Amino acid sequence: MGSSKRSGRSGRSGGGRLNPLWAKAPAVLLRYPGLFASLAAGALLLALVASSYPMFISAASSVAVGKQIDRTTRFGAGLSLGRTFPIGGADVKAEQAIFGERTELFRRRVARQPHLAEPVVTVMAQIPYEVRSVEDPSLDSDNLLVARSGAVQHVEVLEGREGDGMWISHFTADNLNLEPGDEMIIAPPFGGNHVKVRIDGIYRALSTEPRTPYWRLLVGQIYPPGPLSAPPPPLMLADLDRISGIVRQMDLQDRPDTGSFDLQQEAPLHAARYTWEAPVSLRDPMTLEEARDLQVFMMNMNDSLRDRGSELYKAFGCVRCFSNDPQILTQMSGVLSETEVRLAPIEGPVQLLLTAGLLVALMIIAAAGAFAVATRRTESALLFARGMTPLSLGVKACLEAMIPVLLGTAAGFGLAVLLVRALGPGGAVDPSAVSSGARYAVLLIPVGLLLVGFVSAIFFLRQSEASSARLGLLSRVPWPLLMLVASLFFLNQLMRAPGIAEGSGDGASGPSISLLLFPVLFVAGAAGISARLFQGGFRWLRASSGKLGSSLFLLIHRLAGAARLSIGLLSACALALGIFVFAQTMVNSLETTIRAKSLLFVGGDVQGTSRRGQTLPDDFPYPSTAVTRLPAEGEILPGGAVVDVLAVDSETVAAVAYWDESFGPAPLQELVERLPEAEDGQLPILSTAPEVTSDASLSIDGQTVPVKVVGGVDAFPGMSLDRPVIVVDAATITEVFEEVGAGDPLEHRNAASEIWIAGDTDGIVDGLAEVADPPYFVLTAAEVRDIPSLSAVIDTYGVLQTLGLGAGLLVIVVMLMYMQASQRNRVVSFALSRRMGLDNRSHRASLVLELGAIFTASYAVALLFGLIAARVVVSNVDPLPNIPPDPLFEPPIIPFLIAAVVLAVVSVVGGALANRRAERADLAKVMRLAA
Amino acid sequence: MRRDVVASCRDLVKTYWKQSGQVRALQGIDADFFGGALTAVVGPSGSGKSSLLRLLAALDRPTAGVVRIGDTEIGSASGSELREVRRKRVGYVFQRPSDNFVPYLTVMQHLDLAHRDSGGVSDIEPSELLDDLGIGHRGDHHPNELSGGEQQRAALAQILVAGPRIIVADEPTAELDSHSAREVLTIMKRLSADGISLILATHDSNVSRVADESLELHHGVLGTPSTPAHVIVEEPADTPVSGDDPDAAWRRPGTSRLDPPRGGRVVQAPDRHLAGSTPVPQARLLEVRNVVKSYRRGNETVHALQHVDLVLEPHRLIGLVGRSGSGKTTLLNILAGWEHPDEGRFEWDEEPSSRTLTPWTDVSVVPQKLGLIEELTVRENIEYPARLTDRLEALGPEVDRLVASLGLEQLLERYPLETSVGEQQRTALARALVLTPRLLLADEPTGHQDSRSAHKVFQALRHAAERGTCCLVATHNEEVIGYLDEVITMSDGILHSAGELLADGSTRQA
Fold this sequence. Notes:
The structure holds 2 protein chains of 2 kinds. By secondary structure, chain A is an alpha+beta fold.
């Protein structure tokens, strides 16, 4: 152009305006909905994974806190302040006033802590009093006088009306022939006046009822210390004023000098034990952070109690008290430490999964960045030709990605909050965890943007053939093979060390990293190789596709010529689904194994310790059987091997006891039916000890009988972990020993009687609470399963399963979007093909088949290698190695079938949608733009 | 006058690795490019022209040999040095005009960007530059609102505002109508006169004619400068082209003295009638009456067709000519059935019809966006219509004939993306002809063909017409006029004339 066209000005047409590429960058991706969605999806996953971690841990810790509080009871986890104060003094009003002040002060203090409930106050007499019937004074019963807030609401009223008054247990009422309205005499044991009181009500004795949190403080005063001990004196319930009045009327004398010092015993009889308790509130579930805050509160309150200048000390640390300095008692520290023990095994694996999830999300973002350059090839080529630097292109890509990444991050955080609440462990999420989650999500925004910029810059460099060749070398590295080799390394680690490794100093154990890395690398490597074989197979088929119908012809050619991106998507789909298959199988197998082991250990679903001969009522709704155990009391001769003897009821045990076909050569029913048939004085036995033969004898307490082995088994329900077990019929062993003149071995001093029950655990436990004479101690298989390291392993695989499912869904969505985008690019060829004779049904079929083929191949690879990985790992993860059976391999069929159906439906719907897109494309506009 | 050498190649080799194997695009090229010279790089499709231009534009590095742009040796330069070359010293114009733009920036924003990227050293005022190029009123428009010629001029403006001394352009007139092509060529000559070196890959004889230097490539090797087959219309090189009469070239009475540039051979355009055959009046195949079509483009309404009347008969090869934006493609789209007119009447075989016939045996199409199936080889694409109609075996010989006539023998096992655009066009044409359609619609089937290939294309069309197909071909290619039975011109959506070409080259108005 002529020089006259050159302006005297600087010619910088931009002036002070922003570079137009930067100015327009943030809104550019609105023109490319597919890219926008891909980036948003990647950012969503990134934020979801990162922000769900603290919330998941918080929820898990809340569940753990809740469980520990349940174990300890809310009264145990709360705080209690117990003092011995005088009672029944002459100045009634003063006594009432001071009690009122103390109670009010305590209430005001605990009201500051939102997780403590309304206080419960207990006043208990120092010693039991004799209670006699007025009509027949020869009848007497010891009772302990107790006032406790709301006591009558926590007993089963048999007679009388609720409310204030004197309540006695039905034991006392039955013994003394008393009814509501009768009078009784309360007499102090060491001298003093007898006091006549009227009975207002009769309640069922607490010692016959299951233990409840409310009565925790008085467990020692309610239940016998052992199965052979008599229950302690029942409680007489009254309000404080009535108790104070009774003590006042008694005009108690001091107890005799016992010669030993015991603060409680040394306290005069006109003192009572006052206990103020603030139980943990049930209103809102407590998070771990809130539990820690509660502990700090209690410690501060304790410090205040010890501060002699404090209000609390003045109220509770009075000189007329008969005990040491006041202090807060609580088991909250135990709750916290136990919670932390349970959390420790989870945190490691969850962090590992977090890392894996972040990597997957970053890979998706990177892929979206690469896709952005690949699909906008023309723009990239132009900018390359204009000399744009990769850095500038990267910055441009960052700016373009801002809106989708921000939206995706916000959505991911929101989804994390919802998913943790809906699908998480179920516990409360602390607000600080939500804040942490938000913080992590925000911090990852620049990471995602930088990654997009970096990948875009790298792919931008591929504009040049030379750079493309150099970068292309990376794609020639056999990554799938390397992953397989790496997986073998971790497999070797698994073989050499147990899958559940010991953790750090707290003794908590958790899954080793090899348990996760081996299957992920194995499936990833297999998926990559399979994708290439898949394409190779179709290339081979291509040669002979000439005679096929148009749908198959197109399908084979499309898959044979599939771009790197679609092969990559196939690999990603196979990997995600493979992880899902693996994790699902692991969870199911572990749960099945643990369940089997716990049932074997317990014998049935529930085991109750009982007296010899104790049975459940005939109308008890669940099947039960009686078992007597002689631990380490049997000796096998010759040899002297010590064994446990398990005497069962052959008629009922098979219906109740847990049995797996791997335990023995025949069903349990068939085996136990052989036990009652004693011949020639030989005791029929089942034995877990292979060295026990029918030439052997069984000796118990020096008495020996010959045995006949009617079945060798590898395991038997209820067996000990430490010794072999000999199983006999209870009646038959008694008979055989009596025949040789020995006593009944089942009366052995160390014999333990048990009742095994089969059925729904909660239903059984509730049912036992209704039984008049329930087993003394109840153990459930569910309790056996509740072990931190086991929970950690199962939770870890549960998270992995969710991750696999989430990644699989994401890949499927990306695949569908890719199909849509492909159809947009194929709109002209499709339109021409339709004119050439390709009918709509054939085209739709080819698309459905294309998607179907990719999903089928992915799922087949996922199933095959996911199950192989699971089979290998299962045998290396024995959650309870001392308890048979060996780890069970149990792939869940139903979820896999559901997944297959879902993939089939997605193929059909996706293919139909892609076909519709092609049909509805504005061909005229496309042709006009081309012109 | 000896000019300075601004760029050079010595023993230049470029090799690509493709799915189907190694491709040696350039095999030892030696060439010098001079300051202020317009150099035409010619050769058939696949001869290596684009590869050479990419190297000269510093878009790629040689596999072997040396490429110099000034004192920068491309092979050993760093990435930043190459970017510097691309920003300030060499401007590259892409083959498709639309490829020279970012779709969401206006023309002025493109110039702003180019100016910034060059470091702002140039003192050219962008708005004046646009005025100078005749598109000053298009500064605030987006690229898709411009015609092909306007896009090409805007592309040049982008490059010029950065102030480079070398412009490399890959077939800059391939997709332009003749009028636009002449305008662009005129601008390029002026740039050359201003001292800017232009290196253009081209099939366009008009470009070759005005070039100061010429480079001919055959299979990656420099050949002797010779002229491939093309017909030259007598026109002094410095005679301004009239922009007001786009039909002028098409109305010239026959061909006159042939004036090949620089000693090239001349190939006579063949007699359009086959020996021994005489044209026979035919029943009307298709008649359209009063067709009107408008559509929205951005904020404006484009009246693509305005009361178009047209009659098509079998055994005819008809040229549809006109500038870009004249409505040719819209008319073809409507005849193909991809667009519905706002008004109009159609009669097929003299029967009224509200819809165009759709089967490939009745109407086949070669659109500009070719629509080849990427996953099928060239042979499979050609066979595809036969496959879909279960006539694959029966039409085998016809496929072979088409392949031979269109020069596709060496390409049969390649995939479309491994072939040049010109080769893809011929593949698409073969596919369109394989079922011997009644009507063939082709939109610029020779836009990316060298002259020899263009003749092959029209020979094939001629053959199809002789066999009964009515071929309606939108084209800018003046070389092929000898093949046509009739010429229809369009401008601004109006059919101006339909003239039958006589044996002596004159036209008889319909």
